[in-house]
Amino acid sequence: MSSSTHRVQLLRAPEAGPRSGTAALALARALGIPRADAALLLSAAPRVLPRGLPLDAAQRLLETLRAAGADGSVLEAPASGSRCAEHPSLEDEGPCEICGARICAVCVLARGARRCGTCEGRLARSRRFQRLRVAVLLTGLCVALIWGFSVQRQRDARTTWTRPLRVAVVLLGEDDPAAQVLRDGMPRLEAWFAREHLRYRPEGLKQPVQFQVFGPVRPEAPLPWPEDSSSGWLARLSYARTLQGALAPLDATVDLEPRAYDARLYVVVESGTSGTFAEGVGATGGELGLVRARVQGEDATLALTALAHELLHCLGATDKYDAQGHAMLPQGLVAPELAPVLPQQQAEVMVGEVPLEAAAGRLPNSLDELAVGPHTAAEVRWAAQ
Ligand SMILES: [Zn+2]
Ligand SMILES: [Zn+2]
Ligand SMILES: [Zn+2]
To answer: What are the residues whose beta carbon lies below 5 Å from ligand 2 (ion)?
Structure first.
Protein backbone atom coordinates (compact mmCIF):
# COMPACT_ATOMS: atom_id res chain seq x y z
CA MET A 1 0.00 0.00 0.00
CA SER A 2 1.42 3.33 -1.03
CA SER A 3 1.78 5.81 1.78
CA SER A 4 -0.10 8.54 0.02
CA THR A 5 -3.02 7.06 -1.81
CA HIS A 6 -5.81 8.11 0.49
CA ARG A 7 -7.53 11.39 0.77
CA VAL A 8 -10.26 12.92 2.82
CA GLN A 9 -13.30 13.99 0.88
CA LEU A 10 -14.98 16.74 2.85
CA LEU A 11 -18.74 16.82 2.27
CA ARG A 12 -19.85 19.31 4.90
CA ALA A 13 -17.90 22.02 6.69
CA PRO A 14 -17.69 21.91 10.52
CA GLU A 15 -20.21 24.07 12.39
CA ALA A 16 -19.01 27.49 13.34
CA GLY A 17 -17.84 27.70 16.95
CA PRO A 18 -14.90 26.64 19.12
CA ARG A 19 -14.85 23.16 17.59
CA SER A 20 -14.28 24.51 14.09
CA GLY A 21 -10.98 25.94 15.43
CA THR A 22 -9.95 22.43 16.53
CA ALA A 23 -10.85 21.10 13.10
CA ALA A 24 -8.77 23.76 11.33
CA LEU A 25 -5.81 23.03 13.59
CA ALA A 26 -6.01 19.27 12.88
CA LEU A 27 -6.30 19.90 9.14
CA ALA A 28 -3.34 22.33 9.21
CA ARG A 29 -1.19 19.69 10.92
CA ALA A 30 -2.25 16.89 8.63
CA LEU A 31 -1.75 18.86 5.42
CA GLY A 32 1.33 20.83 6.53
CA ILE A 33 -0.19 24.24 5.84
CA PRO A 34 -0.88 27.36 7.93
CA ARG A 35 -4.04 27.31 10.00
CA ALA A 36 -5.63 30.14 8.07
CA ASP A 37 -5.22 28.18 4.83
CA ALA A 38 -6.73 25.12 6.52
CA ALA A 39 -9.75 27.18 7.63
CA LEU A 40 -10.14 28.38 4.04
CA LEU A 41 -10.19 24.78 2.76
CA LEU A 42 -12.75 23.76 5.41
CA SER A 43 -15.07 26.60 4.47
CA ALA A 44 -15.00 25.51 0.83
CA ALA A 45 -16.65 22.13 1.40
CA PRO A 46 -17.55 19.99 -0.42
CA ARG A 47 -14.15 19.13 -1.84
CA VAL A 48 -11.42 16.51 -1.84
CA LEU A 49 -8.59 17.78 0.33
CA PRO A 50 -5.48 18.33 -1.84
CA ARG A 51 -2.98 16.02 -0.17
CA GLY A 52 -2.63 12.29 -0.24
CA LEU A 53 -2.26 10.70 3.22
CA PRO A 54 -1.55 7.24 4.62
CA LEU A 55 -4.84 5.48 5.33
CA ASP A 56 -4.57 5.72 9.13
CA ALA A 57 -3.69 9.41 9.00
CA ALA A 58 -6.63 10.04 6.69
CA GLN A 59 -8.99 8.20 9.03
CA ARG A 60 -7.74 10.06 12.12
CA LEU A 61 -8.21 13.38 10.34
CA LEU A 62 -11.74 12.48 9.30
CA GLU A 63 -12.62 11.52 12.87
CA THR A 64 -11.39 14.84 14.21
CA LEU A 65 -13.34 16.69 11.54
CA ARG A 66 -16.49 14.71 12.30
CA ALA A 67 -16.11 15.49 15.97
CA ALA A 68 -16.24 19.15 14.97
CA GLY A 69 -19.49 18.66 13.10
CA ALA A 70 -18.06 18.11 9.62
CA ASP A 71 -18.83 15.17 7.47
CA GLY A 72 -16.92 13.33 4.78
CA SER A 73 -15.26 10.12 3.83
CA VAL A 74 -11.87 8.62 3.00
CA LEU A 75 -11.23 7.94 -0.67
CA GLU A 76 -8.62 5.85 -2.31
CA ALA A 77 -7.07 7.92 -5.04
CA PRO A 78 -3.90 7.78 -7.12
CA ALA A 79 -1.17 10.11 -5.84
CA SER A 80 -0.60 13.15 -7.96
CA GLY A 81 2.97 13.89 -8.91
CA SER A 82 2.97 17.68 -9.13
CA ARG A 83 2.82 20.13 -6.24
CA CYS A 84 1.84 23.75 -5.78
CA ALA A 85 4.85 26.05 -6.16
CA GLU A 86 3.74 28.06 -3.14
CA HIS A 87 2.36 25.30 -0.94
CA PRO A 88 4.80 22.43 -1.56
CA SER A 89 2.82 20.01 0.63
CA LEU A 90 -0.34 20.37 -1.51
CA GLU A 91 -1.13 18.90 -4.90
CA ASP A 92 -1.62 21.25 -7.80
CA GLU A 93 -4.99 22.04 -9.28
CA GLY A 94 -3.83 23.18 -12.66
CA PRO A 95 -1.78 26.08 -13.95
CA CYS A 96 -1.83 29.80 -13.09
CA GLU A 97 -3.95 31.42 -15.80
CA ILE A 98 -1.24 34.00 -16.44
CA CYS A 99 2.14 32.30 -16.18
CA GLY A 100 1.26 28.62 -16.03
CA ALA A 101 2.93 28.01 -12.64
CA ARG A 102 1.47 25.19 -10.55
CA ILE A 103 -1.16 26.36 -8.07
CA CYS A 104 -3.32 24.55 -5.54
CA ALA A 105 -6.82 24.84 -4.11
CA VAL A 106 -5.62 27.17 -1.35
CA CYS A 107 -4.12 29.50 -3.95
CA VAL A 108 -7.38 29.59 -5.90
CA LEU A 109 -9.52 30.07 -2.77
CA ALA A 110 -7.29 32.77 -1.33
CA ARG A 111 -7.25 34.85 -4.52
CA GLY A 112 -10.65 34.02 -5.92
CA ALA A 113 -8.85 33.42 -9.22
CA ARG A 114 -6.52 30.89 -10.78
CA ARG A 115 -3.40 32.98 -10.20
CA CYS A 116 -0.09 32.28 -8.53
CA GLY A 117 1.32 34.57 -5.83
CA THR A 118 3.83 36.22 -8.18
CA CYS A 119 1.24 37.11 -10.78
CA GLU A 120 -1.23 38.25 -8.11
CA GLY A 121 1.45 40.59 -6.66
CA ARG A 122 2.24 41.97 -10.09
CA LEU A 123 -1.47 42.58 -10.78
CA ALA A 124 -1.96 44.29 -7.42
CA ARG A 125 1.02 46.57 -8.11
CA SER A 126 -0.30 47.49 -11.55
CA ARG A 127 -3.76 48.16 -10.07
CA ARG A 128 -2.16 50.42 -7.45
CA PHE A 129 -0.15 52.14 -10.17
CA GLN A 130 -3.31 52.58 -12.25
CA ARG A 131 -5.11 54.14 -9.27
CA LEU A 132 -2.12 56.40 -8.65
CA ARG A 133 -2.07 57.43 -12.30
CA VAL A 134 -5.77 58.25 -12.23
CA ALA A 135 -5.23 60.22 -9.01
CA VAL A 136 -2.37 62.17 -10.59
CA LEU A 137 -4.44 62.86 -13.70
CA LEU A 138 -7.40 64.00 -11.62
CA THR A 139 -5.16 66.23 -9.53
CA GLY A 140 -3.73 67.75 -12.70
CA LEU A 141 -7.22 68.33 -14.04
CA CYS A 142 -8.28 70.01 -10.78
CA VAL A 143 -5.21 72.25 -10.82
CA ALA A 144 -5.93 73.21 -14.43
CA LEU A 145 -9.58 73.95 -13.62
CA ILE A 146 -8.70 76.00 -10.57
CA TRP A 147 -6.09 77.86 -12.58
CA GLY A 148 -8.62 78.47 -15.35
CA PHE A 149 -11.21 79.73 -12.88
CA SER A 150 -8.73 82.00 -11.14
CA VAL A 151 -7.58 83.50 -14.47
CA GLN A 152 -11.21 84.02 -15.41
CA ARG A 153 -11.91 85.57 -12.02
CA GLN A 154 -8.95 87.90 -12.38
CA ARG A 155 -10.20 88.89 -15.82
CA ASP A 156 -13.74 89.41 -14.56
CA ALA A 157 -12.35 91.43 -11.65
CA ARG A 158 -11.03 93.91 -14.20
CA THR A 159 -14.54 94.97 -15.09
CA THR A 160 -15.93 95.44 -11.60
CA TRP A 161 -14.47 98.98 -11.78
CA THR A 162 -13.79 99.17 -8.06
CA ARG A 163 -10.12 99.92 -8.65
CA PRO A 164 -8.13 101.50 -11.49
CA LEU A 165 -7.13 99.14 -14.25
CA ARG A 166 -3.36 98.88 -14.65
CA VAL A 167 -2.38 98.80 -18.31
CA ALA A 168 1.15 98.49 -19.64
CA VAL A 169 1.82 100.18 -22.98
CA VAL A 170 5.01 98.98 -24.63
CA LEU A 171 6.29 101.15 -27.45
CA LEU A 172 8.03 99.16 -30.15
CA GLY A 173 10.45 100.72 -32.61
CA GLU A 174 12.79 103.71 -32.56
CA ASP A 175 12.89 106.35 -29.91
CA ASP A 176 11.89 108.94 -32.47
CA PRO A 177 9.52 111.92 -32.35
CA ALA A 178 6.57 109.65 -33.17
CA ALA A 179 7.19 107.60 -30.02
CA GLN A 180 7.38 110.84 -28.06
CA VAL A 181 4.06 112.09 -29.50
CA LEU A 182 2.40 108.85 -28.48
CA ARG A 183 3.98 108.93 -25.01
CA ASP A 184 2.74 112.51 -24.57
CA GLY A 185 -0.71 111.40 -25.66
CA MET A 186 -1.17 108.76 -22.96
CA PRO A 187 -2.36 111.17 -20.21
CA ARG A 188 -5.01 112.41 -22.67
CA LEU A 189 -6.17 108.83 -23.20
CA GLU A 190 -6.37 108.33 -19.42
CA ALA A 191 -8.47 111.49 -19.22
CA TRP A 192 -10.65 110.20 -22.06
CA PHE A 193 -11.32 106.94 -20.21
CA ALA A 194 -12.15 108.92 -17.04
CA ARG A 195 -14.56 111.18 -18.96
CA GLU A 196 -16.35 108.29 -20.67
CA HIS A 197 -16.46 106.17 -17.51
CA LEU A 198 -18.07 109.00 -15.50
CA ARG A 199 -20.71 109.49 -18.23
CA TYR A 200 -21.99 106.00 -17.41
CA ARG A 201 -21.03 105.89 -13.74
CA PRO A 202 -21.30 109.40 -12.25
CA GLU A 203 -20.22 107.98 -8.89
CA GLY A 204 -17.49 105.90 -10.49
CA LEU A 205 -13.72 105.94 -10.36
CA LYS A 206 -12.02 109.28 -11.03
CA GLN A 207 -9.32 107.37 -12.89
CA PRO A 208 -10.59 104.02 -14.20
CA VAL A 209 -7.51 103.29 -16.32
CA GLN A 210 -3.85 103.90 -15.52
CA PHE A 211 -1.31 103.58 -18.30
CA GLN A 212 2.33 102.89 -17.73
CA VAL A 213 4.52 103.38 -20.77
CA PHE A 214 7.55 101.18 -21.46
CA GLY A 215 10.17 101.43 -24.17
CA PRO A 216 10.61 102.10 -26.98
CA VAL A 217 12.22 98.74 -27.52
CA ARG A 218 13.21 97.22 -30.84
CA PRO A 219 11.99 93.67 -31.42
CA GLU A 220 14.64 91.28 -32.76
CA ALA A 221 12.24 90.18 -35.48
CA PRO A 222 9.00 91.71 -36.75
CA LEU A 223 6.09 90.74 -34.49
CA PRO A 224 3.79 88.04 -35.82
CA TRP A 225 0.45 89.37 -37.06
CA PRO A 226 -2.52 87.07 -37.44
CA GLU A 227 -2.99 85.82 -40.98
CA ASP A 228 -6.74 86.02 -41.03
CA SER A 229 -9.07 87.17 -38.30
CA SER A 230 -11.73 84.67 -39.39
CA SER A 231 -9.50 81.61 -38.90
CA GLY A 232 -10.51 78.97 -36.38
CA TRP A 233 -9.84 78.84 -32.67
CA LEU A 234 -6.89 76.50 -33.14
CA ALA A 235 -5.16 78.97 -35.43
CA ARG A 236 -5.97 81.77 -32.98
CA LEU A 237 -4.61 79.73 -30.08
CA SER A 238 -1.43 78.95 -31.98
CA TYR A 239 -1.14 82.62 -32.93
CA ALA A 240 -1.61 83.67 -29.31
CA ARG A 241 1.22 81.34 -28.29
CA THR A 242 3.50 82.61 -31.07
CA LEU A 243 2.74 86.16 -29.99
CA GLN A 244 3.36 85.40 -26.30
CA GLY A 245 6.70 83.86 -27.27
CA ALA A 246 7.68 86.94 -29.27
CA LEU A 247 6.62 89.34 -26.50
CA ALA A 248 8.30 87.64 -23.54
CA PRO A 249 11.84 88.80 -24.43
CA LEU A 250 10.54 92.35 -24.97
CA ASP A 251 8.93 92.32 -21.51
CA ALA A 252 12.26 91.23 -20.07
CA THR A 253 14.14 93.96 -21.93
CA VAL A 254 11.96 96.75 -20.55
CA ASP A 255 11.63 95.11 -17.11
CA LEU A 256 7.89 94.57 -17.39
CA GLU A 257 6.33 92.05 -15.01
CA PRO A 258 3.24 90.88 -16.97
CA ARG A 259 1.38 89.73 -13.88
CA ALA A 260 1.48 93.22 -12.45
CA TYR A 261 -0.86 94.47 -15.20
CA ASP A 262 -4.47 93.84 -16.09
CA ALA A 263 -3.65 94.20 -19.77
CA ARG A 264 -0.65 94.90 -21.99
CA LEU A 265 -0.75 96.82 -25.22
CA TYR A 266 2.17 96.64 -27.63
CA VAL A 267 2.35 99.50 -30.07
CA VAL A 268 4.42 99.53 -33.20
CA VAL A 269 4.90 103.25 -33.78
CA GLU A 270 5.81 104.47 -37.21
CA SER A 271 6.30 108.05 -38.18
CA GLY A 272 5.13 108.90 -41.61
CA THR A 273 4.37 111.75 -43.86
CA SER A 274 1.62 110.12 -45.86
CA GLY A 275 -1.30 110.29 -43.49
CA THR A 276 -1.98 108.32 -40.39
CA PHE A 277 -3.35 104.87 -39.90
CA ALA A 278 -3.85 102.47 -37.10
CA GLU A 279 -4.73 98.83 -36.92
CA GLY A 280 -4.71 96.34 -34.16
CA VAL A 281 -5.56 92.96 -32.80
CA GLY A 282 -6.80 92.25 -29.35
CA ALA A 283 -8.09 89.06 -27.89
CA THR A 284 -11.66 89.52 -26.68
CA GLY A 285 -11.55 88.97 -22.94
CA GLY A 286 -7.77 88.52 -23.07
CA GLU A 287 -4.93 90.60 -21.80
CA LEU A 288 -2.91 91.34 -24.93
CA GLY A 289 -3.39 93.96 -27.59
CA LEU A 290 -1.17 94.67 -30.56
CA VAL A 291 -1.42 97.99 -32.37
CA ARG A 292 0.40 99.33 -35.40
CA ALA A 293 0.00 103.06 -35.68
CA ARG A 294 1.47 105.82 -37.74
CA VAL A 295 1.77 109.19 -36.15
CA GLN A 296 1.99 112.30 -38.27
CA GLY A 297 3.27 115.46 -36.75
CA GLU A 298 1.72 116.05 -33.36
CA ASP A 299 -1.50 114.15 -34.03
CA ALA A 300 -1.75 110.83 -32.19
CA THR A 301 -5.56 110.63 -32.26
CA LEU A 302 -5.72 107.53 -34.44
CA ALA A 303 -3.02 105.72 -32.50
CA LEU A 304 -4.77 106.55 -29.21
CA THR A 305 -8.10 105.45 -30.68
CA ALA A 306 -6.54 102.14 -31.67
CA LEU A 307 -5.12 101.71 -28.14
CA ALA A 308 -8.51 102.40 -26.55
CA HIS A 309 -10.15 100.05 -29.06
CA GLU A 310 -7.77 97.15 -28.35
CA LEU A 311 -7.90 97.69 -24.59
CA LEU A 312 -11.70 97.56 -24.68
CA HIS A 313 -11.44 94.33 -26.71
CA CYS A 314 -9.37 92.93 -23.84
CA LEU A 315 -12.17 93.90 -21.47
CA GLY A 316 -14.83 92.13 -23.51
CA ALA A 317 -16.00 94.72 -26.04
CA THR A 318 -16.72 93.61 -29.60
CA ASP A 319 -16.24 95.32 -32.94
CA LYS A 320 -19.23 97.31 -34.14
CA TYR A 321 -18.39 98.01 -37.76
CA ASP A 322 -19.64 96.20 -40.84
CA ALA A 323 -17.68 94.57 -43.64
CA GLN A 324 -17.09 98.00 -45.24
CA GLY A 325 -15.80 99.42 -41.96
CA HIS A 326 -18.85 101.57 -41.24
CA ALA A 327 -20.86 101.70 -38.06
CA MET A 328 -23.41 98.94 -37.49
CA LEU A 329 -26.78 100.42 -36.52
CA PRO A 330 -27.66 100.94 -33.78
CA GLN A 331 -24.89 99.27 -31.75
CA GLY A 332 -22.10 101.20 -33.50
CA LEU A 333 -23.56 104.56 -32.49
CA VAL A 334 -22.61 106.77 -29.56
CA ALA A 335 -26.03 108.42 -29.53
CA PRO A 336 -28.56 105.98 -31.01
CA GLU A 337 -31.37 108.04 -29.50
CA LEU A 338 -30.80 110.97 -31.91
CA ALA A 339 -33.60 111.73 -34.35
CA PRO A 340 -32.67 111.58 -37.11
CA VAL A 341 -30.00 109.14 -36.04
CA LEU A 342 -27.49 110.35 -38.70
CA PRO A 343 -25.24 112.24 -38.78
CA GLN A 344 -23.63 111.49 -35.42
CA GLN A 345 -21.27 113.87 -33.67
CA GLN A 346 -18.86 111.28 -32.34
CA ALA A 347 -17.20 108.05 -33.37
CA GLU A 348 -17.93 104.96 -31.33
CA VAL A 349 -14.61 103.59 -30.13
CA MET A 350 -15.31 100.05 -31.39
CA VAL A 351 -16.08 101.48 -34.84
CA GLY A 352 -13.51 104.24 -35.27
CA GLU A 353 -15.37 106.63 -37.52
CA VAL A 354 -18.03 109.32 -37.09
CA PRO A 355 -21.11 108.13 -39.00
CA LEU A 356 -22.34 110.89 -41.32
CA GLU A 357 -24.88 109.09 -43.47
CA ALA A 358 -25.66 105.49 -44.41
CA ALA A 359 -22.39 103.69 -45.26
CA ALA A 360 -20.31 106.85 -44.91
CA GLY A 361 -18.26 108.35 -42.13
CA ARG A 362 -15.10 110.26 -41.30
CA LEU A 363 -12.23 109.72 -38.93
CA PRO A 364 -12.41 111.55 -35.59
CA ASN A 365 -10.23 114.67 -35.44
CA SER A 366 -9.55 114.41 -31.72
CA LEU A 367 -10.44 112.35 -28.69
CA ASP A 368 -13.35 114.79 -28.14
CA GLU A 369 -14.97 113.16 -31.17
CA LEU A 370 -14.47 109.65 -29.79
CA ALA A 371 -16.83 108.06 -27.28
CA VAL A 372 -18.03 104.80 -25.78
CA GLY A 373 -21.51 103.90 -27.03
CA PRO A 374 -24.12 102.23 -24.82
CA HIS A 375 -23.48 98.75 -26.29
CA THR A 376 -19.78 98.86 -25.57
CA ALA A 377 -20.45 100.38 -22.13
CA ALA A 378 -22.66 97.38 -21.33
CA GLU A 379 -20.02 94.93 -22.62
CA VAL A 380 -17.36 96.32 -20.28
CA ARG A 381 -19.94 96.61 -17.48
CA TRP A 382 -19.98 100.37 -17.15
CA ALA A 383 -23.70 100.20 -17.74
CA ALA A 384 -26.27 97.50 -17.04
CA GLN A 385 -26.65 95.05 -19.93
ZN1 LIG B 1 1.38 33.07 -12.27
ZN1 LIG C 1 -0.88 26.92 -3.49
ZN1 LIG D 1 -11.46 95.50 -33.14
So the answer is: 84, 86-87, 104, 106-107
Report pLDDT digits (tens) over 5-15.
899 999 998 88
* Cα 89 to middle of ligand 1, angstroms: 18
Taking alpha carbons only, the member of 52, 43, 49 closest to residue 10 is 49
Alpha helices per DSSP H over 10-160: 18-31, 35-43, 55-67, 105-111, 117-157
Instruction: Tell me the CA–centroid distance for residue 130 and ligand 2, in Å.
Output: 27
For range 261-278, the mean pLDDT: 73
Nearest bound ligand to the CA of residue 317: 3
pLDDT digits (tens, 9 = 90+) for 226-236: 766 556 667 77
pLDDT tens figures, 119-142:
999 999 999 999 999 988 888 888
Domain 164-316 classified CATH 3.40.390?
yes
- Do 1-79 and 164-316 fold alike per CATH? no
For the chain, what are the domain ranges?
A: 1-79, 83-157, 164-316, 321-385
Q: Report the CATH number of the 1-79 domain.
A: 3.30.1390.10
